[in-house]
Amino acid sequence: SLTVLQALEDGLKRADADPSVKAVMICGENGKFSAGADIRGFSSPKRHGVPLGPIISLIERSEKPVVAAIEGIALGGGLEVALGCHYRIAHVKARMGLPEVTIGLLPGAEGTQRLPRLIGVPAALDIITTGRHIPATEALKLGLIDEVVEENTVEAAIHFANKV
């Protein structure tokens, strides 16, 4: 939602400007990282606010480490947000993917560029063109995430952020 995008932008800018902040952790709510954009908003004639792509670039450019704590699902724009983070920690039951292709849309926030850079072209093409959801264990093998945890993902991501 536009509210979430604005909160991400505001929070990142505040964290970057605050010298007492050493790292940033991005998580979802209620056990889900992000299911991506609400496609009903695509048909809206007036979309105000910051688009997702520049916010992901803001995450990527942060001089402070940004860690994604992926619980539940990271799909579409949600996975693209995670791809912009410097590190990704996922719960063992998490699933990731770019399913928008199944309804005729291409990932629109540079996921088609970031994913191949991270995991290589063959694996990225499979994920991008099929829209399949991959489990955390496969994502770890591909290099999409840095660590899989069975415990509290948010606490694990904070611990990871403190290490880096």
From TrEMBL:
GO terms for cellular component: peroxisome. GO terms for molecular function: (3S)-3-hydroxyacyl-CoA dehydrogenase (NAD+) activity; delta(3)-delta(2)-enoyl-CoA isomerase activity; enoyl-CoA hydratase activity. It catalyses: a (3Z)-enoyl-CoA = a 4-saturated (2E)-enoyl-CoA; (2S,3S)-3-hydroxy-2-methylbutanoyl-CoA = (2E)-2-methylbut-2-enoyl-CoA + H2O; (3S)-hydroxyhexanoyl-CoA = (2E)-hexenoyl-CoA + H2O; (2E)-hexadecenedioyl-CoA + H2O = (3S)-hydroxyhexadecanedioyl-CoA. GO terms for biological process: fatty acid beta-oxidation. Keywords: Isomerase, Lyase, Multifunctional enzyme. The keyword Isomerase applies. The keyword Lyase applies. Pfam families: ECH_1. Belongs to the enoyl-CoA hydratase/isomerase family. In the C-terminal section; belongs to the 3-hydroxyacyl-CoA dehydrogenase family. This is Peroxisomal bifunctional enzyme. It comes from Aramus guarauna.
